[in-house]
Amino acid sequence: MRQEYEITLQPLPGVPVERALPLRQRLWQQGWLRKGLILIVLAILWEAAARYQNNDLLLPSFLQTFHAFYDGIASGELLGKVSISLVVLLKGYLIGIVLAFALTTLAVSTQMGRDLLSTLTSMFNPLPAIALLPLALLWFGLGQNSLIFVLVHSVLWALALNTYSGFMGVSETLRMAGRNYGLKGMRFVLFILIPAALPSILAGLKIGWAFAWRTLIAAELVFGATSGKGGLGWYIFQNRNELYTDKVFAGLAVVILIGLLVENLVFDTLERVTVKRWGMQR
To answer: Which PROSITE patterns does the record associate with it (predicted)?
Structure first.
C-alpha cells in the first residue's frame, strides 16, 4: 500500500453524533413533537372554523370544548363514564383474544379446525357488531353482558384472521427446527408460531382494539338510551339530547384521546420492545 494515498481519519470531538446535528433537525426527529404539531394545527383550524360559524349549538369552539372537558374531569363525571366503558371494553377484549387464539390454534393443528375457522370468519366477519345488539339485548337483557357479547364479536374475527395469516407465513425452516426439538401441539404454537407471527398478531390486536372501542361507543349510545345508564357513549348521547354541544365534543375528544394513548403508549411500546427490537419490523 502506498502511504501517500492513505488518509488518516481524525477522531470526532467528545460531542455525540446526535448533538452534532442542528437543533431543528434533532427536534424534527422526535415523533411525539411532530404529532403534537399536527394536533395544534388541527386545534387552530377548529377554533377558526367555529369563530367563522359563530353558532355554539352547531360547532362550539376549541376553547369552549376544552372548558367543558376540564369541568367534566374536575367534577369526576367524565372519569366515571370512562371507567365504566373501559371495564366493559377490557372484559370483551380479553374474551375475544382468548377465543381467537383458541380458534387459530385449532386451525393450525387440524384440517377440521381450518375448515371451521374459514367457515365462521366468512359468515360472521362481514356482519357489523352493532347489528347484533338487539339480539344481544334479547338474549342477555339490559346489562354489561350484552355489550360484552358485541365486543367479543368485533374483536374475535379480525384477530383470528390476522393471527392465522401470521401462523401460515412462518417459514418452513422454523417449523422444522421446532419439530427437531420435539415441540408439538401447544408448545409448538407457543415457542415457534407465536414469536415468528408476532407482527401479524400485534396488527390483529390493534385492529381488534379499534373495532372494539368504536363498537362500544356506538353500542352505548343505544344501550344507554335503553337502560338509562352507561359509559362514555351514554354521556355523549345524553348531552346531545340536552343540547350541550360543548360536552358532546368533550366526550368525543375523550374517545379520541384514549385511542391515541392506547395506540402510542401500549401498542407502539409493544412493537418497539419486541418486533422492532428483534429486526422483524422497521
So the answer is: ABC_TM1
CA distance 107 to 114: 4
DSSP for the chain, please give it. Answer: --GGG--PPPPP-SS-HHHHS-HHHHHHT-HHHHHHHHHHHHHHHHHHHHHHH--TTT---HHHHHHHHHHHHHHTHHHHHHHHHHHHHHHHHHHHHHHHHHHHHHHHH-HHHHHHHHHHHHHHTTS-GGGGHHHHHHHH-SSHHHHHHHHHHHHHHHHHHHHHHHHHTS-HHHHHHHHHTT--HHHHIIIIIHHHTHHHHHHHHHHHHHHHHHHHHHHHHHHHHHHS--SHHHHHHHHHHTT-HHHHHHHHHHHHHHHHHIIIIIIHHHHHHTTTTTTS--
Nearest-5° Cα angle at 251, 249 to 253? 70
* pLDDT > 60? residue 133: yes
Q: What's the CA gap between 36 and 15, in Å, rounded?
A: 29
CA 135 to CA 132: how far, in whole Å? Answer: 5
- C-alpha 245/C-alpha 64 separation (Å) is 10
C-alpha cell at 66: 376544552
pLDDT 10s digits, 181-207: 887 777 888 888 888 888 888 888 998
pLDDT score at 22: 73
Closest CA to 216 of 103, 89, 117, 122: 89
Query: Considering only CA atoms, which of 153, 167, 263, 264 is closest in space to residue 215?
Result: 153
User: Could you tell me the pTM of the whole model?
Assistant: 0.78
**Residue whose C-alpha is closest to residue 202's, from 151, 270, 156:** 270
Residue reference for cell 390454534: 105
